[in-house]
Amino acid sequence: MKKLINGPDAVVADSLAGFAAAHPELRVDRRNRIVYRATPKGPGKVGLLSGGGSGHEPLHSGYVGPGMLDAAVVGEVFTSPTPDQVLEATKNVDVGAGVLHIVKNYTGDVMNFDMASELVAAEAGVRVESVVVNDDVAVQDSLYTAGRRGVGTTVLLEKIVGAAAEEGRDLASVAALARRVNESGRSLGVALTSCTVPAAGRPTFELPEDELEIGIGIHGEPGRRREKVAPASDIARLLVEPILADLDFGGAPVIAMLNGMGGSPLSELYLMYGEVAALLEASGVRVARRIVGDYITSLDMAGCSLTLLRADDEMLTLWDAPVATPGLRWGA
Amino acid sequence: MKKLINGPDAVVADSLAGFAAAHPELRVDRRNRIVYRATPKGPGKVGLLSGGGSGHEPLHSGYVGPGMLDAAVVGEVFTSPTPDQVLEATKNVDVGAGVLHIVKNYTGDVMNFDMASELVAAEAGVRVESVVVNDDVAVQDSLYTAGRRGVGTTVLLEKIVGAAAEEGRDLASVAALARRVNESGRSLGVALTSCTVPAAGRPTFELPEDELEIGIGIHGEPGRRREKVAPASDIARLLVEPILADLDFGGAPVIAMLNGMGGSPLSELYLMYGEVAALLEASGVRVARRIVGDYITSLDMAGCSLTLLRADDEMLTLWDAPVATPGLRWGA
User: Given A23, A60, A101, A219, which residue is catalytic?
Assistant: First the structure.
């Protein structure tokens, strides 16, 4: 295992220290491992909180800032943050209008965010709603998940719902929008290599030099099946077809994300996006907005994932609203 | 070799097609392999043109847009674009105030940009100035270079000089600023793995599982020396010390870039930045601005590079000016 780290035990603390040094425009509580905006939102606005295991950067700490999250809670590598961390962050981002928890559907995350919600309601009287993202069409139930796993739609949801919270919508509306975005998003990933968890020191799984795995999870959970290495045009088909089979994307503006898993260069991600875009056009799917890059990763895994969101005019307007975070930035 | 490609011969064309699909806000001439802004600069402003071999994305095509380049010329993987491509692009970005060529110091690039400058002056009467970036402190002369190689300072230069050109400064001033930025920037890189050029199909060099290479080039050119794999804090020292020994960075605001080579995840880059920032602080170097991410890459190479720019107030103001490109974006 060759990595730019000091040692497996220090990975999360050291990376967060570097993140803090790189982003003086954010406030990092290194003891509790929580990333906050430097300037809290105005009173009366819903707080948005997400978080999860480390190893998926820029998710979630890279999406804290104006137009997206108010805070992100950072767990150990591929490990849920604790209820205490979520409790602390929830109390701090509440400015009186309540807090929305954005949780990816992994058993540990769901349990710990739930526990924190109960604690914060009892202890501090903070109203909390939760949305659980479960957009991965790969498999029903997985290594750490009952139901579908939560992946790329999380990024799009944090952007869209972040803009809605910025407008001052109330907790019920923000939560309802978040659920609607989740229901409208679908993802599927492919791995060319395994990731290597620092504490394990060796690849999470073995993938022969002539094979790829469709439907891989962001923690290296098994996918649908393995295939012989294929041209990008074939790989694109293996990603697009199951997504289009799972939800009707016709007649609506679609937001597309071609996401890298951490170890694939940008040139390959663009190449894959070209193949995906051609297939979508041939299928009559109208891509209205698109992003290409590393947005939700799996350490050093080579590969990519595709997320499609069946949007509407409201979602597009919220998507286009200004955002200023380390991981997504545009507008004013 | 596992890559998200259709075949080695189609890599550049296919990736550019995907780039075009992903960035409708830019204009891509796929035949000549040139990326332009969709809306040219106003008359009387100097055109900024760069380019080079593919495989370093987002450099250079990702830096086309308001506040940075007017166009980027795209060569084959690790291969200079042709004089004809540079000629075509130069003619198109000239709006009467002349064109600055930003060229990384590799023999092929320097020769082909020079040839294009002569052709365009003779054929179309366009005034051209060139700046050759040679900021890599690793080695004097290299596999494809007489003198020092040109690497990370190119990114910072394109941003700073892009802002100056946007202000309407004349060609001589823009070129002088570009040379001053180049003289003020220093870089050094480290590889944990080789890159794999698609056409070759195997790693460019062999690096044992317990070694890293200091001073690696962005085409996999040999560096200064190999070391046993070390903690990030030691690697940071191996990058920082030769840079500080090469130029006095004291008493000036410094712009720092911790850049990924393509195959290292963002979490490791942040971690490395934390180590670098601590060393710089201990050395009395004042980092005024910093960026962390993949900005000038070497295909799928794991590793990183550090660039430090000894800036001044003028450069900082230009750095902070708005920019809206796929690879760098902030401000209005």
Answer: A219
pLDDT tens for B44-59 read 999 999 999 999 999 9
| Residue B286 resides in a domain | yes
Residue A48 has pLDDT above 90, yes or no: yes
Give how far A16 is from chain B: nearest CA, Å: 7
Q: Is residue A72 part of a domain?
A: yes
Torsions phi, psi of B267, nearest 5?
Answer: -60, -40
* Contact between chains at B232 and A274 (C-beta distance less than 8 A): no
Q: Do B231 and A7 touch (CB under 8 A)?
A: yes
Q: Domain for residue A236, yes or no?
A: yes
- Please report residues of B whose CB lies closer than 8 A to that of A270: 15-16, 18-19, 22, 57
Residues A201 and A135 in one domain: no
Q: Does B153 touch chain A (CB under 8 A)?
A: no
Can you list the positions of beta strands (E) in chain A? Answer: 26-29, 34-37, 47-54, 71-77, 99-104, 128-133, 185-191, 211-214, 225-228, 253-260, 286-293, 303-310, 323-324, 329-330
The mean pLDDT of B100-112, rounded to a whole number, is: 98
Amino acid identity, position B146: A
CATH number at residue B69: 3.40.50.10440
A136-145, A297-306, B120-129, B314-323: the lowest-pLDDT one = A136-145
Tell me how many domains chain A contains. 2
What one-letter code names the amino acid at A86? V
Can you tell me the distance from the alpha carbon of B280 to that of B120, in angstroms, rounded to the nearest whole number? 44
Minimal Cβ distance to A235: which of B4, B263, B299? B4
pTM: 0.98
The predicted pLDDT at position A85 comes to: 98
- By residue range, what is the domain housing residue B86? 16-184
Residues A252, A127 within the same domain: no
**B60 included as an active-site residue:** no
Instruction: Round to whole Å and give the CA distance between A80 and A246.
Output: 28
pLDDT at B144 over 90: no
What is the ipTM for the molecules in this complex? 0.97
Domain co-membership, B113 together with B144: yes
* B209, amino acid identity: E
Q: Is residue A222 part of a domain?
A: yes
Q: What is the pLDDT of residues A257-297, one digit of tens each?
A: 999 999 999 999 999 999 999 999 999 999 999 999 999 99
Chain B partners within 8 Å of A300 (Cβ) = 263-265, 302
**B17: nearest Cα among A288, A281, A273:** A273
Are B180 and B277 members of one domain? no
Any CB–CB contact under 8 A between A55 and chain B?
A: yes
Q: Is A23 a catalytic residue?
A: no
